[in-house]
Automatic annotation (TrEMBL):
Coiled coil: none annotated. InterPro entries: ConA-like_dom_sf. Signal peptide: none annotated. Gene3D superfamilies: 2.60.120.200. This is LamG-like jellyroll fold domain-containing protein. It holds the Pfam family Laminin_G_3. SUPFAM superfamilies: Concanavalin A-like lectins/glucanases.
Length: 516
């Protein structure tokens, strides 16, 4: 069985293919658009297996028009299904043959293999192929599932309606365009969450949207409330409601999280996952004008009260999370970095170039595993050799940990994890064919306090029993692209991405399921 899912933005017609693979003429599968189906297009899934032809064609109004939409197709070995924007458009019973063994001809933007003259024209994103037929509800929950105001921004899953993970500097209205396009909660329940690092006071707004003067919502800091406070308020059809609480330290420099929610009966305010106060309210809420959305500004129009400092991981949800759910959001208890869920203690997703110690400040401020256990994971694309370090932290000479590549191990390289703790040395070195060659691959290392393990591309390459000491307390020595602290002359040359450190030794199957 299978599910095919993709988000598309067409620019022209033809019989544009979406996704297909296998052999030309027979034993293939093809998903394509059908401009001539109805007034505004259709979807056509078909395949040929051992000479047997199967197909389902449905009308999908607007599928060929410009603008982002999602299309999906599935087969559970008994029923073929086609969807647009999460809505089931048609089904057909079929329990016959399916044969698409030749993966070498896979194409996105082309359906039936060989029909490149019918290539899709436009943009695609979020292409997914699964070896299972998803249920209707599971397809509806995929990133661009249909919402009342159209399709949601790619990458969001309910109850998220707006998300901006990356750090940005505030001193004016930010993220206006993205917020204005989001399916913001304009009349109902909500949760607002953001991580912030203030640099100065004033009446700094955090997040707000709606119209100026009436029918808006605003979350802001209150510098004069004790040592600082939080203030959530809104006005709906002339009715004013608010909750203000003391939040010691919220206006001080340093990262912390703030959150606000309303479930249509109770307003709540939080800092670092802790509930600070609540207030019963079951009246009106009206913030329909999404064009007034601002991060860094609370009440629409009050740009002179913009927050000063940095923000990251801004999230708006169309549901009031429970206290436990708010506590489980990234910065629970005020520690860690952006978008972390246990057992993650450090995560850097974006690609970066290596030739020196990198991410030192992020690593030194993270809750690194200094006495064990741990898992380290990173995706690498090498450009040259040496004894390139991958990740390391601790002190120079003793009480450190280092993961590095080993060009001289076998014909095409190896992996070397080693540490020194209170003068005691431990290591595991394995052959990892191709690890030093150019091209993206993943490497991982773990220790569960009894066994050291090394992996490449999710495959376990070797293990070694060890239940001795581990001591890497000095986080200030953290480096990506360098292994053993101080050995910057052995810096990795190339690119890295998806760096993750966990305070748990993942199982083999968990490592296998990491990004790559």
């Amino acid at each position: 069985p299978f599910t095919i899912y993709v988000e598309i933005n067409p620019t022209s017609g033809g019989h544009p293919g979406v996704i297909g693979w296998a052999s030309q003429g027979d034993n293939f599968i093809s998903l394509r658009l059908w401009p001539g189906r109805g007034n505004r297009g259709g979807l056509h899934l078909y395949w040929k297996a051992n000479g047997q032809f199967a197909e389902l064609a449905v009308q999908a109004d607007g599928v060929i028009n410009s603008g982002w939409k999602s299309v999906a197709a599935s087969w559970d070995k008994s029923t073929i299904r086609l969807y647009m924007n999460g809505k089931l458009l048609g089904t057909k019973s079929y329990s016959g043959a399916f044969n698409a063994v030749d993966k070498s001809s896979f194409c996105a933007c082309v359906g039936e293999p060989g029909r490149t003259h019918e290539a899709f024209k436009g943009n695609m994103r979020n292409v997914q192929v699964m070896n299972k037929a998803l249920s209707d509800s599971a397809v509806q929950s995929l990133p661009m599932a249909h919402a009342s105001s159209g399709v949601k921004k790619a990458g969001l899953t309910p109850p998220l309606v707006f998300s901006h993970l990356s750090k940005f500097t505030c001193n004016k209205c930010m993220e206006n365009a993205a917020g204005a396009k989001a399916d913001l909660p304009t009349t109902g329940a909500f949760t607002i969450y953001a991580e912030l690092n203030p640099s100065s006071g004033g009446h700094p707004g955090v997040i707000g949207w709606g119209s100026q003067g009436d029918n808006f919502v605003s979350l802001r800091l209150i510098p004069w409330r004790g040592n600082g406070g939080l203030h959530l308020y809104w006005k709906a059809n002339g009715q004013f409601v608010e909750l203000a609480v003391q939040a010691d330290g919220v206006i001080s420099s340093g990262w912390k999280s703030v959150a606000a929610s309303w479930d249509k009966s109770t307003i709540k305010l939080y800092m670092n996952g802790k509930l600070l106060g609540s207030k019963a309210y079951s009246g009106s809420f009206n913030a329909v004008d999404k064009s007034g959305f601002c991060a860094c500004v609370g009440e629409p129009g009050r740009t002179h009260e913009a927050f000063n400092g940095e923000m990251r991981n801004v999230q708006v949800m169309n549901k009031a999370l429970s206290d436990a759910e708010v506590k489980g959001l990234p910065l629970e208890s005020g520690g860690g970095g952006s978008a972390l869920q246990a057992p993650l203690v450090l995560k850097h997703t974006d690609a970066f170039t290596c030739n020196k110690c990198t991410l030192a400040s992020e690593g030194s401020s993270a809750a690194l595993p200094t006495t064990g256990p741990f898992t380290m994971y990173v995706e690498i694309n090498p450009t040259s050799g040496g004894h390139p370090g991958v990740i390391g932290w601790g002190s120079q000479g003793d009480n450190f940990i280092s993961l590095r590549l080993w060009p001289g191990r076998g014909n095409r390289g190896g992996l070397h994890l080693y540490w020194k703790a209170n003068g005691q040395f431990a290591e595991l070195a394995v052959q990892a064919d191709g690890v030093i060659n150019s091209g993206w691959k993943s490497v991982a290392a773990s220790w569960d306090k009894s066994t050291i393990r090394l992996y490449m591309n999710g495959k376990l390459l070797g293990t070694k029993s060890y239940s001795g000491a581990f001591n890497a307390v000095d986080k200030s020595g953290f480096c990506a692209c360098v292994g053993e602290p101080g050995r910057t002359h052995e810096a990795f040359q190339g690119q890295m991405r998806q760096l993750q450190i966990m305070n748990k030794a993942l199982s083999d199957s968990e490592v296998k399921n990491l990004p790559m």
